[in-house]
Design the sequence.
């Protein structure tokens, strides 16, 4: 490894570790701020990655030092990820704002998968939340991290991120993920935009409401219904949100849908797995042995 390669490697490691002093020293010595590793990752990408071993990492100081030295704010890793997307994935609202305001970073940059910064933020928030389950999830530090993710999501939405950006394979917009995981704060922020497509369809004909219903996210179901979501939208097999909720077995979700106008007599238009064509939500609840839901749907007037 040549001298320049050693300097570039050291710069990336220092940026990742949050060592602002070493980063500045290396940049002053002429190390290339745009050198990439084999995955196309630059020091600027690494500067905005959360480092558990460096809880006091000064992300903004690192970003400022690298940008002042000529780091490319639009540098793309092999998967298409830009520093702004990386910062959003870490929940760094201050850094995202700085990249937008001072470096004119592209708010709507997408990965090869079609995911934009909001898609990636939601996925990383969910992954972090699952890892924080247990005592840590209730800690003040964990709440602070969640709040930072939420501020960042709201910043992206308020700045006009493209809410219609869809994943290449599934056709899902950010609202699908937020609804599926029951992220009510983010769902509400998305729905506050006039261009939020509440009844968007993915590659399978499903809507965000269907995903919320399938997850048993009753409060999310109510949010979507309140925003005008169609409770009777059927996918390619004829599944409506109520069918999904009946199989999942969450009574509160089923009640929210019925109270929101879901028709209990809708039938599957095609067989799906073990569920035969013509099945109603009640049929599916019975087949899935969801007795409480089946009892509710069996009542007169349901």
Sequence:
């Amino acid at each position: 490894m040549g001298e320049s390669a050693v300097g570039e490697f050291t710069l990336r490691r220092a940026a990742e570790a949050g060592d602002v002093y070493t980063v500045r020293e290396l940049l002053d010595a002429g190390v290339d701020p745009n050198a990439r590793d084999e995955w196309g990752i630059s020091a600027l990408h690494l500067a905005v990655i959360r480092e558990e071993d460096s809880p006091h990492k000064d992300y903004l100081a690192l970003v400022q030092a690298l940008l002042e030295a000529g780091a490319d704010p639009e540098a793309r890793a092999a998967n298409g990820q830009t520093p702004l997307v990386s910062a959003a994935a870490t929940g760094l609202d201050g850094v995202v704002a700085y990249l937008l305001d001072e470096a004119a970073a592209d708010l709507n940059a997408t990965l090869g998968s079609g995911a934009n910064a909001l898609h990636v933020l939601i996925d990383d928030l969910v992954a972090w939340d699952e890892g924080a389950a247990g005592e840590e999830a209730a800690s003040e530090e964990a709440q602070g991290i969640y709040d930072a993710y939420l501020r960042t999501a709201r910043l992206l939405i308020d700045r006009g991120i493209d809410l219609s950006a869809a994943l290449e394979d599934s056709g899902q917009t950010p609202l699908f993920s937020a609804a599926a995981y029951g992220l009510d704060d983010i769902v509400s922020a998305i729905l506050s935009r006039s261009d939020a497509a509440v009844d968007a369809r993915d590659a399978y004909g499903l809507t965000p409401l269907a995903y919320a219903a399938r997850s048993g996210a009753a409060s999310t179901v109510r949010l979507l219904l309140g925003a005008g979501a169609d409770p009777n939208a059927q996918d390619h097999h004829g599944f409506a949100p109520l069918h999904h909720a009946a199989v999942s077995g969450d009574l509160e979700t089923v009640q929210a849908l019925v109270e929101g106008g879901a028709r209990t007599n809708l039938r599957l238009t095609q067989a799906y797995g073990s569920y035969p064509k013509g099945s109603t939500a009640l049929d599916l609840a019975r087949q899935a042995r969801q007795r409480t839901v089946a009892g509710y749907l069996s009542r007169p007037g349901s």
Summary: The mean pLDDT is 95. The two ends are 72 Å apart (CA to CA). The first helix runs from residue 3 to 17.
